[in-house]
Model the fold of this input.
Amino acid sequence: MSPSSALLVALLCTPAAGQSTVVHLNQWELPLRNGSREDTITSSKGTLKHMQTLRLQDVATNGSRFGGLSSIIVAPNGSGLLAISDRGAFEDMSLGSLTADGEYNVTEVRIYPMHDPQGYIIPFGTGGQGDAEGLTINGYYEGGGGGELYVSYEGDHRVLKFPNGVESRRSTRLNVSYLFAHCPSNGGLEAILKQRPTAGVDGLLLMLCEEPSNSSAPTTDPQGRIVLPGWAYNETSEDVKRFYLESDDLFHPTDMAELNGGDMMILFRRFVPTEGNGMRIGYVTKGELDQAMAVGGTLNPQIIAEVRTRDG
Done:
């Protein structure tokens, strides 16, 4: 998802023991908007507060294993952060103590390899088997790289489950790859979300293609709106519910997060070479999602935040 280095909305992490490589970083703090001290965005759903953004770069630039961060998960109390890179690795970040200004410093990154279902290490590098794009967890992330993790990949579109977090020596390939046959090679699953269990019932795995299907027409209109395919997968029964997501202005879904109560936020990104990057956050209620899954309907998220490079 990300180009070089990484933009992080600040949070925390705990190193995990095991087979890892330690990487030391240079880091630069960046404002939400250049030339502005503004740190809040107000919407009808409430106020979003920008905590911290860091640009990170490996001190050892030659042969670095530290790639662009594709997706992150964070402990609810801010005590841990885990990321995946588009080079096919887990990245567990250690942060220094909170400063008087409420900020953190990344002191190091522990990089863990990913293992395929046969127990082999997935080849490291951009593209190919290791193009990891989406990360989610069953339940809450408690730090240390632990938990039942799910990772989606582009190119060879697939979702792997890592039952023991970053320490997993084998993964399991979910029976969902056939769903993504029409997703573009470089526009597959960047946004995935494992819903939290409710009343003892396992949550569904939500998945969205980043770009419109190769075969589902019409997927665009003269106003620039696009319709993106999505799926809700039940691991127990292997049942699949189809739904769709609408977007426009070249914004594509790249991550999702579930809120308490079942509402969710969707992160969209936009890149146009002559204009630079853009980011949107869309809001979908649990009721809207349930209805779309029930009838194969289309979600039209409420946009609660938008930031673009051209705006400073």
